[in-house]
Amino acid sequence: MLNKIKKILTTPFIYSLAILLLFEQWLWRASKRLLARLPLIAFIVRLEIWIASLSPYAALAIFVAPSLLIIPIKIVAVLSIAHGHPTAGVLIVVLAKLLGTALVAWLYSLTNNALSTLVWFVLWRERLLRLKDHVIGQLRASAAWQQIEAGIAALHAARKRSWEWLQQYRNGKLQNARWRERS
User: Per residue in 100-129, pLDDT tens?
Assistant: First the structure.
């Protein structure tokens, strides 16, 4: 009985956490791709070289700084919501999340070598990544997630068919075929 109650209470938490982790993972990858496409500005190049050359604890401070800087932004968002501006508050949180994740992904790529020399950092990173993989694995094993994946696959297939049809139409294949049918 106690296990059943525990499962009922923890299941929504695990699924919410897994969805958040998947969103974070997607955002991390998208941020890295976006930042890789930015033009190489001389100042940015010098900044990247400087950050990559930092000692392990200086690199840790640079890596953690964006997370600490986002706290006041989140407070502003909560105050906006509390003062009757929920849309502004939610937009502030979403924008802070997007920009913060992009910045952290960029900084992590620059500080990873230095951070990997800190044994305790590597241990905690591995534990967190294992926990993340476990939670996401539970989500992906659920029937609801498998239905969502099947729906997404069907949407991708429909999009692909539509794109192929559009390409054929643009190339005149469908126009010529219809013209011949009418004649």
Answer: 878 888 888 889 999 999 999 999 999 998
Q: Phi-psi bin for 54: left (phi > 0), alpha (psi -120 to 50), beta? A: beta
Judge whether 124 and 6 are in contact, CB under 8 Å. no
DSSP 9-23: HHHHHHHHHHHHHHH
Burial of 59 (0-12, 13-18, 19+ CB in 10 A): buried
Instruction: Check residue 61 and give its pLDDT.
Output: 93
Domain chopping of the chain, boundaries:
12-141, 154-183
What residues contact residue 132 under an 8 Å CB cut-off, 6+ apart? 21, 25
Helix axis angle for 42-52 and 86-115, nearest 10°, is: 60
